Amino acid sequence: MMNEYFPIADFKAVYVVDLCHSLCQQAEKKVKKNKWRNVHVVEADACAFELPNDEKATLITFSYSLSSDGY
Predict the structure, then answer these.
(1) pLDDT value, residue 2
(2) 3 state SS for the chain
(3) Which of 1, 15, 44, 47 has the fewest CB atoms within 10 Å, i.e. the most exposed one?
(4) What gap in Å lies between CA 22 and CA 51, rounded to an integer?
(5) Are 16 and 42 in contact (CB under 8 A)?
(6) How far apart are CA 58 and CA 71, in angstroms?
(7) What is the pTM of this model?
(8) Taking a C-beta distance cutoff of 8 angstroms, is the pair 45, 19 a contact?
(9) Confidence of residue 67 (pLDDT cuts 50, 70, 90)
(10) What's the alpha-carbon Rg for the chain, to the nearest Å?
């Protein structure tokens, strides 16, 4: 969906950071399907993630969800 508003190909690098292994796998499939060479999927805690080589971010987006576990 982001690609519709901010074309992924226009970015130097895009990092998808998620703790969930299965969501990272889905992201990898999408990256491969779209042949994005500038997208990096990282399985990690986004709160602790640091960009490599002292790079600076120009745009940060995030999605936050919680499980109610029946509440």
Answers:
(1) 81
(2) CHHHHCCHHHCCCEEEEECCHHHHHHHHHHHHHHCCCCEEEEECCCCCCCCHHHCCCCCCCCCCCCCCCCC
(3) 1
(4) 22
(5) yes
(6) 38
(7) 0.81
(8) yes
(9) low
(10) 13
Q: What pLDDT shows up at residue 39? A: 96
- Percent of the chain at pLDDT > 70 equals 90
Query: What pLDDT is recorded for position 25?
Result: 96
Among 10, 63, 65, 5, which residue's Cα sits nearest to residue 39? 10
- Cβ atoms within 10 Å of 60's Cβ, excluding its own: 7
Cβ–Cβ under 8 Å, residues 11 and 38: yes
Residue 49 above 70 pLDDT? yes
Query: In the predicted model, what is the mean pLDDT of the chain?
Result: 88
CA distance 36 to 30: 9
